[in-house]
Amino acid sequence: MLLTKDGGRYILVVKCPDKKGIIAAIAGYLAENDASITESHQFDDSIAKRFYMRIVFRPDSEHMPPLDTIRAGFADVAKRFDLTWSLQDAAAKPRVLIAVSRFGHCLYDLLHRWRSGALAIDIPAVISNHEEMRSFVEWNNIPYVCVPNTMGKAAQEAKILELSRIHKIDLVVLARYMQVLSPELCRALAGRCINIHHSFLPSFKGAKPYHQAYERGVKIIGATAHYVTTDLDEGPIIEQEVQRVHHEHTPESLVELGRDVECRVLARAVRWHAEHRVLIEGSKTVVFA
Question: How many CB atoms lie within 10 A of CB 7?
């Protein structure tokens, strides 16, 4: 269970074994505490026999107790139905560390959405293994940390962990950060690191995948945003998008279209994570978008 507050509204997200009476128990508990449900989505996985739910509610009167009291009382409901749950205050925006290399399109898009208020996150720092993005990031008044490849992967990953600790980072976003994370770092960031890549994998690996796709005459291009795990590019998928292409497209136009798709997919994944809409279940996710 995840409970957050945002401008007088709360969000409750539940995952648990499927049992009779879960919805009634949760709704009853909220009603008993002077809360009014304004939105509700649920998913009953009949194959895995798992239940997922996201409820938005608000105080129905000034008598609704504070969050600590609601948390303490809800523990009884959670125990009865074997719920996985946690409690947060969504008034505090998630703190996001962005990692980038030489391709800046995803970084530019995320910072634009952040500055415009479309992406409710805080960005305490950006880390890179190249200097190309420094002026743009610092123009946005965000500290830019560069750990070049000459210093080695161990130094780069140590800096990511150091920044995560210093800035109390909630989420690390690999915005086309062209470095493979070590198994140790993947485990340290489990469930709080999102990557974006083109959807040609595993067919077109290595350099210039769009040029490889052009040579093979592909008819669709796309992108995948997923959580990072020790299995390279195979973590739980959050969002994907495809776009049809045809014989008139050049390798360069495929690259341009692909970058647009990557930006959209990554932005949605980051927003859904920040709004606590994504529940990880083994090797996949449930997304209440």
Answer: 7
Q: C-alpha 73: how far from its chain's center?
A: 29
Tokens 């890179």 -> residue? 128
pLDDT tens-digit series, residues 165-214: 999 999 999 999 999 999 999 999 999 999 999 887 667 777 788 888 89
pLDDT digits (tens, 9 = 90+) for 186-196: 999 999 999 99
Query: What's the CA gap between 216 and 212, in Å, rounded?
Result: 6
Range of the domain at 10: 2-87
The residue out of 87, 121, 156 marking a domain boundary is 87
Is residue 6 annotated as a catalytic residue, yes or no?
no
Q: Can you say how many angstroms the Cα of residue 229 is from the centroid of all Cα atoms in its chain?
A: 13
Q: What is the rounded CA–CA span in Å between residue 171 and residue 95?
A: 6
Rounded Cα–Cα distance for residues 98 and 107 (Å)? 8
Residues 156 and 228 in one domain: yes
- What CA–CA distance (Å, rounded) separates 91 from 74? 21
Catalytic residue among 6, 18, 60, 233: 233
pTM beyond 0.85: the answer is yes
CATH number at residue 83: 3.30.70.260
